[in-house]
Specification:
Blueprint (H helix, E strand, L loop, with lengths): L14 H19 L5 H8 L3 H7 L3 H13 L2 H8 L7 H28 L29 H4 L22 H8 L2 H18 L10 H15 L11 H10 L4
Keywords: DNA-binding, Transcription, Transcription regulation
GO molecular function, one term: transcription cis-regulatory region binding
Protein name: AcrR family transcriptional regulator
Length: 250
């Protein structure tokens, strides 16, 4: 009687999936402890042995760089923008968009700020542009990556010099991003701009400017709002959107 072949072993988790799982587990700890987080803390949070981390990453520095890239990834906020119902009034749509972009920028600021406060600057030069238009967020006094690393200092903030254009220079966010940040950031900026254009489309015939232009201005406005000084007057997204839609005059 022929011996049946042994059952095939289920394939283990691939390297990229393992890396992603570790990074997702590490992010909250990095936001809390910065570079002082230990690989043993990360391993416990991920439910794995500490040695598994070093099979996925060369060292803790590489893991921290991967955490920075994950925090900067625009995927989640782009999904939120795409999920905004176009059946709502324009003001409601834009307020949802502003809230989503602000939350993403705050997340970036928390992670990068914690790393900077613990004395670390990112080594990675390939970080994508956040939907808010820059690589920084949160408090303006938390420069979390060096200018050499990111082509801009977080002290400049998302609306700082060399990040994205204001409406006066005649260029769209994707065009300016391509000149200063490279293809990854250009793609992120373009996707954000396109997602915002969709929010204006239902009112195209009644708008003073084309949706493409209004989306660029709105993106610039949100970048500027992210640079609100600590201790300064707080302006809600409701106020920003209402002023944007209705103007200052009654």
């Amino acid at each position: 009687m022929e011996t049946p072949p042994p059952p095939r072993r289920a394939p283990g988790m691939g390297l990229e999936r393992r890396r992603h799982m570790i990074v997702r587990s590490a992010l909250p700890l990095v936001a809390e402890y910065g570079a002082a987080v230990t690989t043993s803390q990360i391993a416990r949070a991920a439910g794995i042995g500490e040695a598994t981390i070093f099979r996925a990453f060369t060292d803790k520095d590489e893991l921290l760089d991967a955490c920075v890239l994950e925090a900067l990834r625009p995927d989640h906020v782009l999904e939120q923008l795409a999920a905004i119902s176009l059946d709502q009034p324009l003001i409601a749509r834009l307020t949802e968009a502003a809230d989503a972009m602000q939350a993403h920028t705050a997340r970036i600021g928390t992670v990068l700020g914690a790393l900077h406060a613990s004395g670390r600057r990112s080594r990675d030069r390939r970080a994508p542009l956040s939907p808010a238009g820059g690589v920084a967020g949160g408090p303006a006094d938390h420069p979390a990556t060096s200018t050499e690393d990111t082509a801009q200092s977080p002290a400049d903030g998302p609306a700082g010099k060399g990040t994205m254009p204001g409406p006066a220079d005649g260029t769209s966010p994707p065009e300016q991003a391509g000149r200063t940040h490279g293809p990854g950031r250009e793609n992120s900026a373009r996707q954000t701009h396109e997602a915002l254009v969709e929010l204006f489309e239902p009112e195209r015939d009644s708008l003073r400017l084309p949706p493409e232009r209004l989306a660029a201005i709105f993106l610039h406005l949100m970048m500027s709002s992210a640079r609100r000084p600590l201790g300064g007057p707080q302006v809600s997204n409701d106020d920003i959107v209402n002023l944007f839609v209705h103007g200052a005059l009654t």
